[in-house]
Every structure is written in C-alpha cells, then in structure tokens.
Write a structure and sequence with these properties.
The protein is α/β, with parallel strands linked by helices and 224 residues long. Helices cover 42% and strands 16% of the residues.
Length: 224
C-alpha cells in the first residue's frame, strides 16, 4: 500500500488498537481478529496490532490499513525495539510499522531502513516535539503521540497530550496521529479539533478488563 493510499484511507478516522499481552484474558490471534472485525464493522478506518502472529491473522481477516508493532519487555524501548523486530512486523503483513522513536533509542535510522527495505511505511511513536523532529529527519512517514506521558521528558498526566498534538500539527509537514489515553469519544473528537490527522484508541475499546476495572473503582463506595 502506498503512503498516499494509506493516508487517504485513514484521514479523520478512528484507528482501533487491538492488543492483548500474554498475561491478559484475550491474548491470542483469534480474539484480536474478532476485535478487528468488530471495529471494521462500525466504521473504523484502521487497525493497530501487536506481534507478527496477531498481525498476520488480522491482515488475512480485514482489509483495513494495518499498523503493526512488536512489544518486548516493559521498560525503556519496548515497542518494536530492534531492526529485526521491525522486519518481522513488516513481513507479517503490516502496511505500516510503529516503533519507539524517542530520544532513548540509538538505532533509529537503522530500524527505519529495515522497514523501508521491506516496503512498509514508518510510524514514529514519540513523546516530545524534539522526538518528532528527529524522527522526521530520519525519514518517518508520520508520528504518533503514543509515548507522551511515558518518558521522563514528557508531561506526566492522566489525560491525552492535546497540546502536543496541536503543536506538532502546525509545525510538521507529515501527518500527526493522536494516541494515548483517549478514554472517551469526546477526547477523540478533541484530538481532531486540535489538528490530529487520525486518532488511535485502544484500551477504552479493546481491553475489557481495564474497562471493567474502571467501573469497579467508580462503584467502590457502594452500600452493603
């Protein structure tokens, strides 16, 4: 899929992140394919998925633009952390490969080159303006605000970083995707109003254990 076609198809829409880690109840490609199909059936414009196994299964099941990644570990750089992981994501069928592109990474150009060699597009998951500028200089096709709030040099907050979305949207010459803590439809709409090209939503749609936990927490003061 060309960059022009990819971005034409996702412009202004909802990308649903269909991910479940090994310790979560819905881990596995069968569950994630179901999530992807459900999202596609109501108008989602794209899917973001983790691991070559899930990516391959989703690519066979739905025809939406597919953003792939491969998570390893839980600290520092764990979103598609090496050129080898990036190649694996592309070869599994992802149209675009997402990876940590923060200043913590020391192999950015090598990882980008690995994706380009496989004929896929690059999404740079960033946390700050400086990250985004460095990723653009290295050759990414778009940036996503995925990691704002998860690095020491970005705002630590429970709400989405709409300020970062707005700033990047007015300064970068590539699409800016909003992602991270978009818990409600209203926040997703606010991201578009701030200039986001599209919005990725994950936990609020596809992680029922977290959705249920929010209800439980809100009801803890119940009588009885």
């Amino acid at each position: 899929m060309t960059a022009d076609t990819f971005f034409e198809r996702i412009r202004g829409g909802l990308i649903v992140s269909c991910q479940a880690l090994p310790n979560e109840p819905l881990h596995g490609p069968a569950f994630m394919v179901g999530m992807a199909r459900a999202a596609a059936s109501v108008g989602a414009v794209g899917i973001r998925a983790n691991s070559p196994v899930d990516i391959r299964a989703i690519a066979e099941a739905v025809s939406l633009p597919l953003i792939g990644l491969d998570k390893h570990g839980s600290e520092e750089v764990f979103i598609t952390p090496s050129p080898e992981h990036a190649r694996g994501v592309a070869r599994a069928g992802a149209h675009m490969v997402a990876m940590d592109a923060t200043c913590r990474r020391d192999d950015l150009r090598e990882s980008f080159d690995a994706v380009l060699d496989e004929g896929a597009l690059i999404m740079a998951d960033i946390a700050t303006v400086a990250d985004a500028e460095a990723a653009l200089a290295a050759g990414c096709h778009c940036v996503s605000t995925t990691l704002s709030g998860y690095t020491d040099d970005s705002p630590q907050q429970t709400e989405p970083d709409l300020e970062l979305v707005a700033k990047l949207s007015t300064t970068l010459a590539i699409p800016v995707i909003a992602e991270g803590r978009y818990h409600t439809p209203e926040l997703a709409r606010a991201a578009l109003d701030a200039g986001a090209f599209a919005v990725v939503v994950g936990s609020a749609i596809t992680r029922p254990q977290l959705i249920a936990a929010n209800f439980v927490a809100a009801m803890e003061c119940r009588l009885g």
